[in-house]
Amino acid sequence: MPDAISRCDRIWTNARLATLDPSVGPGYGLLEQHALGVRQGRIAAIVPMQRCDLTGFTGTVTDCRGGLLTPGLIDCHTHLVYGGQRAADFARRLRGTSYQEIARTGGGILSTVRATRALSEDELRELARPRLVTLMNEGCTTVEVKSGYGLSVEDELKMLRVARRLGEELPVRISTTLLAAHAVPPEYLGNADAYLDLVCSELIPRAAAEALADAVDVFCETIAFTVPQAERLFLAARDHGLGLKVHAEQLSNSGAAALAAAFSAWSADHLEHLDESGVLALQRSGTVAVLLPGACYFLQETQRPPVALLRSHGVPMALSTDLNPGSSPLASIRLMMNMGCLLLGLSPEEALAAVTRNAARALGWGDRLGTLTVGKEADLLLWDLEDPAQLACEVGLGAPCRRIFKGGPCHA
C-alpha cells in the first residue's frame, strides 16, 4: 500500500473523481476508478484503484461503487439572514414598477431593514436556519452570508453573529461579509457620507475586532453608493485586514468592477452592465466574476453579464444564488447552475467549476477548498450520477447526493 494511503484515516474507493483541478485535465478534471484518502480532515492521497492495496488498513473505507465524487458545492453570495418577506414588491414589479422605483418609495431593501431590525438574534436565527439547511441539502458545504439589512452598528453586528452561530450549530462552513453599505439607512437619507463615516470608523473596526466578518462588501450603484464612496470603504476594510467584495454593474456601468480590480478584491458580483475595459481590469487582478442568474431571472432583466468576454479573457466565473427576499428568493444552487447554462451561456463544466473552484476563490479560500487536490480540506460529495453534466441539467429530481463529508467526517 502506498505510504500516503496507509497514513490516511478514511478512504473512498471505486470512485470517479471530478477533481475540478486544471492540472489533472480540462473540464471536470475527471479521474476514473480512483481512490481518495483523507487524513485529519484533509485530502492526503489520490491514487488509481490498482495501486490501492488496503491490506492492513484499519481506518474507515467507503466503497463508492462507481459513484461520482466532487468537491463540496459553495454558495459564495447570499443574504440569508433577514426578517420579513417582499411578496408585495414582487407583485408591484409584475404590474410594471421598476426595482429602482420600488426602492425609492419605501419598498425594497429598506422594507427588509425595518423587519430585520425588529427581530432578535434568536428570531433571525430561527428564520435563517431552514434556508441554510435547504442549501446544505443540495450539497453546499460552504455558504457566504452577508449582513446589510441592519444598517446600524448593533443591527449589522447582530446579523453577523447570527451567521457565525449557524456555522457553529450546523455542519457547514460559513463565510461572513459585512455589507453595511447596502443602502443608506433612513436616519441618514441625504447624508450618505456621514453614514459611511460611521461604518468606517466604528462598524468595520468592531466587526474585525470581534472576528465577525471575513470581508466587506458594498452596493455600488445609482440607488446606493458611488465609486468614490466605495473606495473609502475599501481603504478602511483593508486597514483592518478584511477581504473585499463589491456589488458591481448590476443596474448600470459605474466602474465599480475596475475599482474592485484596483484593490485586488476577491470578487465583483452581478456584472450585467460590465464592459470590456472592466473585463480586462478583472483579468489583470484575478478578481472573480460572480454571476447571479437568479436576480436576472427574478427581476426579468434582459441585460446579461458578458460571459463570452469573461471567458475569452480568462476571468474566473463563479455562480451563486444571491438568496435574498427581494431580488432572488431562490435557495437552490443547482438551479443556479442550470440558469448559468441556459440564461448565461455557461457549459456544464463551467457551471460546476463556478460553484466549486471559482466560488472558493471568490471567498479568498481558493487554497483551501474547491478542488479535489492533495492538501485541500476534504469537503466531498458522493453522487449517484452517470454524467457530471446532470448536476447542471437536472433540478429537483430527487436527491442524488448520497453523502456529504465536510472536513472528513460524514454529516449526511
Describe the structure.
The chain is an alpha/beta fold and 412 residues long. Helix content is 36%, strand content 20%. It has 16 helices and 15 strands. Helix 6 (153-169) links the parallel strand 7 (140-146) and strand 8. The longest helix has 18 residues, at 192-209.
Topology:
Elements: H1 3-6, E1 10-18, E2 30-39, E3 42-48, E4 60-63, E5 68-71, E6 73-75, H2 87-94, H3 99-104, H4 109-117, H5 121-137, E7 140-146, H6 153-169, E8 173-181, H7 192-209, E9 215-218, H8 227-239, E10 243-248, H9 256-262, E11 267-270, H10 276-285, E12 288-291, H11 293-298, H12 307-312, E13 317-319, H13 333-342, H14 348-354, H15 357-362, E14 380-383, H16 390-393, E15 401-405
Parallel strand pairs: 1-4, 1-5, 6-7, 7-8, 8-9, 9-10, 10-11, 11-12, 12-13
Antiparallel strand pairs: 1-2, 2-3, 5-14, 14-15
Task: Provide a compact summary of the structure.
The protein is of the alpha/beta class. It is built from 16 helices and 15 strands. Strand 9, helix 8 and strand 10 form a beta-alpha-beta unit.
Descriptors for this entry?
about 400 residues, alpha/beta, eight-stranded parallel sheet, seven-stranded mixed sheet, 15 strands, about 35% helix, globular, disordered C terminus
Count the helices. How many?
16
Strand-residue proportion: 15-25%
How would you classify the helix and strand content by structural class? alpha/beta
Shape descriptor? globular
Q: Cα-atom Rg, whole angstroms? A: 21 Å
Helix content: 25-40%
By DSSP, the count of extended strands is 15
Q: Cα distance, first to last residue? A: 29 Å
Q: What average pLDDT do the residues reach?
A: 94
In the predicted model, the low-confidence regions spanning at least 5 consecutive residues are 408-412
What order do the strands of the largest sheet run in, or round the barrel if closed?
6-7-8-9-10-11-12-13
Biggest sheet record? 8 strands, parallel
